[in-house]
Amino acid sequence: MRSFLSLHVQAPLEAVAAWAEGRTGGTGVYLVPDPPWTSLYHEALEAEEDPEAIRAFLRELSRLGQALAFLVLSEEDLLFLLAEGGEVRAELRAGPELGTALKAPADLAPLLTRAQALPPEHAVRALAARFGVAENRLESRSRLLGAQIEAHSAAESRIRDVRFRDCRVDL
Predict the structure, then answer these.
(1) Do residues 90 and 80 lie in contact, with contact meaning Cβ atoms separated by under 8 Å?
(2) What would the pLDDT profile of 83-96 be if each residue is shown by its tens digit?
(3) In this structure, are residues 59 and 68 in contact, taking their beta carbons and an 8 Å threshold?
(4) What global pTM score does this model have?
(5) N or C: the chain end with fewer CB closer than 10 Å?
(6) Which residues, including other chains, have CB under 8 Å from residue 15's CB and lie 6 or more apart?
(7) Which CA distances in Å does 57 have to 19, 20, 111, 164?
(8) Any idea what the Cα angle at residue 142 is, between residues 159 and 100, rounded to 5°?
(9) What single-letter DSSP state applies at residue 107?
(10) Are strands 77-84 and 67-73 parallel, antiparallel or unpaired?
(11) Between the CA of residue 111 and those of 66, 107, 117, 151, 165, what are the distances in Å?
(12) What is the pLDDT of residues 129-143, one digit of tens each?
């Protein structure tokens, strides 16, 4: 399963760091400057894969400036949110788990309609490019997650092999 979440806000790194302090539940949040954006990678939100929790976090984050969320689940589902001033202005959901929804102001409706027809990772690239978010950060994050999942699966396999070997009974 390859999934990822990335959040972005048009605000200086220092402002985002100050805002994030105490709002992350003690979990890891990585901040990456990408002027005029600051990208956030929130481990707990990513692990939860809860669209409503992501929406609530993004609404609060958007009080600092325009904010974006990209959630891709199992390479099949996409959630894109754009928020400003504490309100979600645009939403795109596409895929078997998240269903289909499109809410957008007139200036973004054509873009979101086109993105809805694309595979999730392609839609993320198209939307990120439109907003000037460095798509290479999103792609590298996606590749990193794929490598982590493969490494985790390999480690689990080795653990099973060791457990099986240790449980052998000679009759």
Answers:
(1) yes
(2) 999 999 999 999 99
(3) no
(4) 0.77
(5) C
(6) 38, 64
(7) 12, 10, 24, 44
(8) 110
(9) T
(10) antiparallel
(11) 17, 8, 10, 36, 55
(12) 999 997 544 544 444
